[in-house]
């Protein structure tokens, strides 16, 4: 599974240079102070290609780090460039793009300094750990030395300068931020004569700060970083926070100070030198071509143009267009800084990206996040959005808010612009009565709103608890709180819990309900039934192995008079048999269908998210209705057929064997498969998808007629040990003796619908290029294929691009390190050299560590239980214990590339896993953890040491917090004797 490419030599050639904006020296008028002088460092970012940026003063090529310089799942591609203020500009993607230089040239900051840059931000960071998004910095915050120019929350511009004893910061005015979506000319200066820091935006002073009567101290031991903080916070063990996102052009560092008159004049001169004497509009739109060739990224499902999404929500139809919004972090493929992404469609399957609809704002209900909600049309003013506003300053942090579009003013049915109202819609006060207890005020989110007969209804997800003062003493279960109003702005009247689950008897729906949805259920041919479906996602306060995996529902009656939901069945039913379908949101279409959108969790590690550059996608919208027997009918919306392209198979009335023979000519990873099969005594009927010729990789969809169960088996879906696998399924009856199957296959995305009643949503990540085949088999009996059709699918956004990158095969002429994956369940093949921290008790199959989340240890065919070495052994002293563990000594063979999973504490000197040369004890390569328990794959390229005797050593000499190291799936190519 691993890419074993050696380090490449990157050419330092740059091209496409454009004449830079001029920076003529100028002398300040006041006091004879020295004005800005010739630059000591300048980056114009005018390169059109390549992975370096030219520093113009020294002529050196500074490297531009970017996630796809050496891509994992797609072909390599260069950092993104766009048109700049003049010439080109570099696009910083918010989590991986950074330029690294040795320093700002021959700059003596004691004599004054000026930093000058053009920026066009795309998104603001939350301000993680109180650190700014760094535009450019060379500083050591702990030592209070060096300088930083950056952005704080909501785009506030700041400049920091260290004086050893003090780190002085000047902040720009809150009402003069670096605005998103436009070019901002930012200049920061240190004036030693005036003992002052000053900030300028577009030539105008926006902030000052007084400095000590002493010289500032540089930080020459730190690299000069453009786009990333010198001391960034590490998120989830994988992502660097405090990074800039947006375009940057013409960064200049100069000696000398800038005064007000010179700043204004220089800005005016720069603008006057531009074509038309106008600053151009920046092109900040995220382009999907960034991911061309990604072998796992879906092509005909809705997903954001880049980075992280969670549940799509607030579907609404208005003036011939369907709108969908989604939880989105524009700064990277990780959770945080939650915005509302926005897409529009005329058919719910072909989508067009629109600008971010809602973003955290200082003067809004949601300064700390705009969480999930819903939409509803309010007459002539069009749709209104109800959202969850996060505000960490409040005791309960969550409330619901309202946003309206500018449609009435601009008539734009794309609804690209929204305004959030500053007042909340609903809030959860303390001791709000709710059935057997009170509403859990700290969990009050995900409003679902609809209007009916002049009454507006709002459901808010929450839980029911008992309080002892401010302490929760008992959790009763999840609920949806119901409110009513006569208009969207309210006032809203609380009506109590719509329904709730008793944890003591029905624990599956969790302690809190998220994303409650209540929809009418039409019957056959769309007739009214008077029944509704209530869908919810369970949430638990602590770690739960079923979290973010399931959606439950009840069918019943909505009693408007009593404001209660009366279920037809006490036990909740699971909506989807997989572990990926979550986050439902629904609406009623103009033709009366109840349609539900969902998120398909990708179940990838944080490292895989970082390497791929995106996380999660939406499921295919599904239509819900009530069958004649009172059960739920589920099927993809009819519009999904509009994505079909060439028909690859059209099979009628034949045996399974003959159908399978004809399927041998069919392959693909973008398919719509529709089949009707009569079992006729067959014990099982199996459709294999994403299968290679010999079944090394394949995913099996099986119907077991004896057990009446529909299953997905992903045990062999991928050779990648870091991919989640397993078998999932549920009970399904045949439909009048027939098996009706619909499968939508979209790269890593798989949705299977059986008999129109149940679905399995899953993910598969094959590594082999030819894992695109189909096979149909049966056991026993004489099953007959009534019909089987296969279509190639077109893209939801544009023409799909073919996958272009696959992993090279592992060496086959080698042996494995003895017990390399601890599959024996103990330390067989390993020796405890010293200490007490490592023992057989450390080898475990635990999938979580009990206080936070999954390990994501390897899952291989040889060790499906997933054994791994957890260095934290409570019985052996926990973090306080120390010791050394060593593998068998072997001769390195094959390609000399070793890979292994490592997690635990971050201490490269005292806590690490290493490859050691046995003859002299030299450590050839080592890796520590990142203060997280989730594993990440590390690779040691030891091709220069092939033929040498080596061993793997796991070292724990740390005894404080996070004083443990975890290891799994150690792959060493061992030369055969």
Automatic annotation (TrEMBL):
Keywords: Disulfide bond, Glycosidase, Hydrolase, Signal. Transmembrane segments: none annotated. Residues 1-28 form the signal peptide. Residues 111-261 form the LamG-like jellyroll fold domain. InterPro entries: ConA-like_dom_sf, GH32_Enzymes, Glyco_hydro_32, Glyco_hydro_32_C, Glyco_hydro_32_N, Glyco_hydro_beta-prop_sf, LamG-like, TAT_signal. It holds the Pfam family Glyco_hydro_32N. Residues 280-296 have a biased composition (Basic and acidic residues). Its EC number is 3.2.1.26. Residues 277-296 are annotated as: Disordered. SUPFAM superfamilies: Arabinanase/levansucrase/invertase (SSF75005), Concanavalin A-like lectins/glucanases (SSF49899). Belongs to the glycosyl hydrolase 32 family. This is beta-fructofuranosidase. It comes from Streptomyces pharetrae CZA14.
